[in-house]
Structures are given as C-alpha cells and as structure tokens.
Amino acid sequence: MRFVIGQITHETNTMFGVPTSVDVFRRKDWALGQDVIKLHDGVRDYLGGMIDAARKNDIEVVPTFSANAVPSGVIMRSAFDQMLGHLLAGIKNAGEIDAICLALHGAGSAEGIDDIEGAILNAVRELVGPELPVIVTLDLHVHMTTEMVEQSTALMIVHEYPHIDCYECGFSAIELAYRTVRREVSPVMRMISLPMFIPPTTTYSGPAYEIKQRCKHWEEKGLLHVSFGHGFPHTDVPVIASNVIAIADGDAKLAEEAAMDVANQVWNSREEFRPRYPDPATALTMAKEAAHGPVVIAEVSDNTGGGAPGCGTHLLKAMLEADIPNSAFGFIYDPVASDQAHAAGPGATISIEIGGQIDPDCLGAPVQVEAYVKSVTDGRHIVQSEMGGGRQIDLGKMARLVIGNVDIIIGSERYQTIDPEIFLQHGIDVTRYKIIALKSQNHFLSGFGTLAAEVIRTDPPGWTPSDLTHLDYQRISRPIWPLDDNVKWDQQS
User: Fold this and answer.
1) Is the residue at 483 inside a domain?
2) What pLDDT does residue 492 have?
3) How many domains does the chain have?
4) What is the pLDDT of residues 428-444, one digit of tens each?
5) What sections of 57-115 are H helices per DSSP?
6) Is 476 within a domain?
7) Where in the sequence is the domain holding 346, given as residue range(s)?
8) Is residue 401 scored above 80 in pLDDT?
C-alpha cells in the first residue's frame, strides 16, 4: 500500500491585525517531499504518529508538503495558495496511491476564505475523486463545517487539551485508512454543531474531562471515533461553534445516537464553562501564601498559542511590584530588548524597556527597568513534553534578566512555554523557585503539570481572554452562548 501524508496547520486569530505570511510558516515548519519525514520522524506530533503507524503496517509513505505556524493573524491569500499548491502538486506527482492522510487544524482562515480546511479538502477531492479514502486529523479547537465532512472519509479530533495525543491521533488516522482500504471497516460520520463555543478549557479535569470520558465510552462500545471539538473562541468567523463528531462502522444510526448523546452532555454542561480567574496582583498573593512551590501562574489572556502577541506587561508589572524572592517569568516576547541584552552581554547592567510594543492600551505599556544580564542564549532546544516531544525549535536570541528578586526571560520569537526547557536553557531550575510565571492557557500542563505544587490562572486584558465577552465579535453567527442569553438548541433524547 502507498499512502500520501501532508500537513497545512494554522490556528487563525482574526483579531491579530498582522496578516500571516509565508515567512511565518517557514520559521516554524516548512518542508517538501522527503524533508517532511526528516522534520517529523521521531517527533510526538500528528505526522510523527502517521510515519510510525505506516512503518508498523508496512505501508509506503509518500510525503508531500508540511507547513505549520505559530497561531497568528489571517493567512495572506498568496501564502495559502502557495501552500495548497505544494500539497496538491505532491499528491498529483505521487503516482498510484491507496489513501491520503492529512494533518489539518480546523480553525484556519485566509484572506477571502473563512474555512481553509474545507477549501483544502474540496481541492483534494477535485484532484483524486470521490472514492479514495481521505482521513484527516484535527485540533481540539476546531470549527467543523459541512464541507469538511462531505469532502473527507473521516475527521479525527484529538481528545486532550493540552494536546498530548497528537501522535496517537496521527497513528490512528493511518490505521483507520489501512482498515478502510482493506474493506475491514466502512466509516460513516455524523456531525452535530451547537450554538455555543467555550473558552480554552483543559480536558484534565472539570466538564471537558467528563465529556471526554463520554466520548471514550462510545469508542469502547465499538465506535471508530467520537470526539468533542471545543471551537476556537479567539477568532471572528461565521462558522465558529462547538461540534461533536461520531464515526461508526457502516452504521449511520449508531453514529447519530453517539453524536447526539455527547452533544446533549455538552449543551447541558455549558454553564460550567464560565471561568473566573483572579487579577495578576491577587494571583501573586495567592502564590506567595502557598505552602509549597513551585506555583505556576499562567497569564492566559496573552497566550501566543492562541494568537496573542506575548508582549503583554500586566503580570510582569505585578511581579516587579511584588518583588517576591525566587520568582521567574518565562517569557516575554520582545526582539528589541533581546538584541539589547545580547549586545551588552552577561554581567552587564542595562536600562531597558520590556514588552508593550503591540497594543499597549490593551496589553499594557512597556516597563522601564534597570536589569542585570544574567545570561544570553540562541533559543534552540529540544521539546521534552508529551506535546511535540523530540522536536527541535529555534526561538532566536533570548536572555535572562534579573530585576530585584525576579528573573525575567525575554525572547525574539513568539512561542508558548509548554515545558521547563526554556528556563533550564537560561540556568533556572524551576523546582527551586517559589513562583514560575508564563504565558499559556493549558498547554503548559503537559510540561509543568507534574512539577507544579499549584496552578493559578490570571486573566487580565489581552487578546486571548477566558472571559469571551471582552472580545469585539462582528461576524460570528448570533445568537450564540455565552455571548447571548436564552440561546436555544433542539435537544433530543
């Protein structure tokens, strides 16, 4: 058997005013042909799982194209057209193939295209025809659309947030394609869209955990795949929604039953998805009073993993004012400050502005400080967490500054801190610190969950708030929960 694999992945925050160019993708993930294998082999991501599953089943993999970027603004149309062109050319030149497995996201938008995943799958179908199995992996923060369902054989969403099961999802996609080609199974999908969307919510506990368990219950009863797509709330497109997908083996009625059962649970649990987080000063007081450390404080509203700039200063200012011993912040996006620290070198004391270079009215103004340059690095390290473990990333010039009792790491590339490696690279052992601050919603749990004595989230003004009423939505379909009251959905028993 010969299977094509490929990837075009982007989580688009349409409220991020800067369009996403090809260069943004190239800085993270851009590979053609066999370079796709070199980049993802041995990595705990979707394509890494696909590669290993193909080896297990003696399937020849035909790698086409892979592109991924840090969540950011709307993709430039020229960039999207170029990526789609590479993917389609790879498929066209692959020769005779038995199936296609693609890693997409489900919340991607380009100029003039709200649903790039639907556009990708439509173009693939036009190329290969209606019969070839096309299996797709999707992020949990997905906006499932009718076009995506109609143009694919199966859509498989990761179950976990943090997304520690991307590898497993990719592995399962290949195995499902393998069984489909061998006519062992005949996937039938049922999607249910709900008039709601939720703030980023971990599946490790709470209502999302309970819904995840319900999905797994149906899979244990014989469904090929059942999952809850939370939706991506930090964007403004008409297709935004939470969705449930169920895939049965040739049994449309069973898929309908499973999807409706999970959808009912999601709808009935919706009020449990309204978070209430303390402001930064209160979060720091709570952390200081904790009996043991490290206490992780996550500034969820400036999460680069959701398309925020990562240069907000609300938590930074509160930390400097509190000046609590054994505190560290990793990290603030500020390429100018990073350059300045590198130019001065370790051992220097510099007058420097940190953060606030983007939207200071919302994210906070720059902070002017006298800082001691403790160390500078090139930002290159290997991810150690279950989420993307084994992947080398390059964050460019970074530096560790000491300001009073607080260590601040600054960086020149936008990135969400998901494990302690960024701290270790700068000489900080997080287990010896009382307070570790970072910018993330939930992915940090994949690397810090077992290390943290306590986790506190704070939600000051920002571009990825958990209180969704703070965002100025203009294009989404209304009414929708949690923005509107008395939203109705026709539940079924």
Assistant:
1) no
2) 63
3) 2
4) 999 999 999 999 999 99
5) 77-92
6) no
7) 280-466
8) yes
